[in-house]
Amino acid sequence: MKIMPAHLPPTKVAYTDPTASLQLAGCLSGYIEELHPDTRITVVCLGTDRSTGDSLGPLTGSALRKFHSDTFDVYGTLEEPVHAKNLDESLLHIRRNVRHPFIIGIDACLGQPASIGCIQIASGPIRPGSGVHKELSPVGDIHISGVVNVAGFMEYLVLQTTRLHVVMCMADLIARSVYRAVTASARGQVSPQDLVVTQNG
Predict the structure, then answer these.
(1) Pairing between strand 11-14 and 118-123?
(2) Residue 54 in this model has a pLDDT that exceeds 60
(3) Model pLDDT, residue 151
(4) 195 assigned to some structural domain
(5) Which of 20, 52, 109, 171 could form a disulfide bond with 60, CB atoms 3.0-4.6 angstroms apart?
(6) CA–CA separation, 51 vs 195, rounded Å?
(7) In whole numbers, what is the pLDDT of the chain averaged over residues?
């Protein structure tokens, strides 16, 4: 049912880049435009509100819910997060209740110091928990990851001490980019004006 593009290179951009919204929404539109009309966009935002660094997913999910759009489904919010303990249950629910889902997995990750604040969109699933050495079910036909802090040492503590401002800015940018890309594609036309998303909306 889903028809994926033969190849789309990953897109990586800093949340402070003035063109970040254009790049992210444009990349997402490249995937979405190739999907069968019966495919349902399903956004799964991973993480927990109990850790600043790991709250990127739930913050993004809550921001997406505020758009009240019927063009996609959202799983994982601050109120009802999708995390290690309920991940498999959530994925089973999607398989049973969403017809032909195209899943966009969204999660925080750790990386190099120079990459903090960068957001990447790439083909294939995201592997939640890998930054803290957990093996959890992979999520997504494509994924969006945000580098929230530095990897390599005391990962749990690093996530707890991540700056909330950076995570919230990244979550807002991801949510607005997903919304604009999906709704513009649903109308059957994508213009630069549709894809431009600024911090102020």
Answers:
(1) antiparallel
(2) yes
(3) 85
(4) no
(5) 171
(6) 31
(7) 87
Q: Structure tokens of 56?
A: 């990127």
Model confidence at 187, pLDDT cuts 50, 70, 90, reads low
Residue type, 164: L
Cβ(55)–Cβ(49) below 8 Å: yes
Tokens for 39, please give them.
């495919």
Q: What is d(CA 64, CA 15) in angstroms, rounded to the nearest whole number?
A: 17
174 near 106, Cβ under 8 Å? yes
Q: Is residue 181 included in any domain, yes or no?
A: yes
Taking the alpha carbons of 163, 167, 173, 176 in that order, is the dihedral positive or negative? negative
CB neighbours of residue 19 within 10 Å: 10
SS (H, E, C) 62-102: HHHHCCCCCCEEEECCCCCCECCCCHHHHHHHHHHHCCCEE
Q: Which residues pair with 133 in a beta bridge?
A: none
Mean of the pLDDT values across residues 9-19? 95
57 is a domain residue: yes
- pLDDT tops 80 at residue 111: yes
For residue 30, give both structure tokens: 């490249």
Residue 46: which domain range? 11-186
Check pLDDT > 60 for residue 141.
yes
- CATH label of the domain that carries residue 101: 3.40.50.1450
- To which residue do tokens 């999708």 refer? 82
Residue 78 lies in a domain: yes
110 touches 147 (CB < 8 A):
yes
The count of domains in the chain is 1
Mean pLDDT of 17-46: 93
